[in-house]
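During the reporting period the student researcher (J.K.) took over the structure-prediction task from the postdoctoral fellow and processed the backlog of single-chain submissions. One of the processed entries is reproduced below for the supervisory committee.
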Amino acid sequence: MPPVLLPPAAERPQDLRVGAPAWREAALAASRRAQQLTERSGLEAVGMWQPADTGRDPHLARHLSRAAHMEPWRFRVEMLKGGGTVERPPPGEGVTLWRGKTKPPAWRARLPLPLHRDARALQTAEVVLAHARGARLTAARLGRAQGQINAQLQRVLRMREGCDRRLGEVRKGLLINEQSTRLRSFRHASEKIPDRVDSTLKWEKEELKAMKRKVEVDMEKTETLLKTLATCRDMLGFYCQERLQAAELMNQPLDKVLEQAGRHSWVDLSRAPTPRTQGLKTPPPDPVGAYTPDCATALFEAKRLLMESKEALAELERGSSGLDEQQRQIGNRVNNTLLQKMRETLELKERINMTLGLMRGTIHRCTKFSQEMYVTCGIIKGPMLKTHMEAREKLDRPLVRMYQKHVGTQLPEATRLAQGTDQLHQHNMLMEKNLKELLATRDKLAGCLGAKEMGYQIDHSVVRLRRRQQNPHVGYEQAQQLVHH
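J.K. obtained the following structure tokens:
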């Protein structure tokens, strides 16, 4: 049957349409509205599951638009160095379909899925776990900083103990100086003439007082450092315990947390950075997060205190490095001065002792000679009674009376006897005066010898006392007890 050829629309008569134009337009409008609703509903339904960056070009056909939209999903062929090829998925997020050689981007639903409750629960768990991890990391950092502050606190405490021991040695030196001065005050008045030993003791006292003031200033510095470091340690411990409340159910060591973070310390500046890992940077402070501004302030304060305390410890070590040697040299100088004074005293003692020996022999000889002169004077004077006189001793014997009958023939015997007796008497008086002076000088030298002996013994006792109490095993309390005793 041959096909029926219809005439063109222009050739068809318009009057062949039976329906009214309004009726036909209403039907066509209803059809267009239904088609638009269908397309819009389909687009809205599919749009709930399309990727976030999905957009179709309205000027392209649907099949061409779909092909252009799926073109970035396909694998790319790359040339290798050896001449071969390899297909690799495009970069970015998405699900790789190796069989279909495509990688669609990640889809994001705009409506809740059936697993919405589980997804929200997992999201909440992730938020909680992230906060717990941050709190645990912050707690680990705070704990490590607390440990470093505690170690620095122990170093400062050891330095304070050293300063305390040094202060005790200086105070003991002052006690020894006071006791030495007090012992030397028991010397004889003739030995209390100011000498180099007294000036050396005064110099030692002034030097020890200056050292005491310096050590007391160091003690004040260490006390201030101890209080500041203890306050910082307690603050770090409080914040650490506060952060651990959010991570107490997670059984993981804090050192392991720091190792995973790639940072062994955020405070210690002396440690070299770990070369094998690139450590995490310090997060910015968050008032509602795990790393709060208070924690940041505490860590910054700990870092500042570590630097300041290291500088202060180095300065204290430099300032106190030579105090012990200086005090030892001062004590040795005083002891050497006392020993030199003892040697000089011993030399004077020997000289005075020799002088006393010579004076003793001189006194004995003078006493014997004086006694002989008194006997001679008595012999010259003659006997006490005239009846005891011999005839040749009498001045009125016949020979003398016979010769002295004339005036010009007077004999000088009586005058010469009187002159000799008077001369002997004057000589005996002079001998007695010399003997008295010799005896007085001997007594004075004996007293001086005793004073020298006492001064020598006192200086010896002072040197012995100083050497015994300057022993490092003798403490300040023992020296104080000896002084009171």
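The committee noted the following: The two ends are 153 Å apart (CA to CA).
J.K. will present the remaining backlog at the next meeting.
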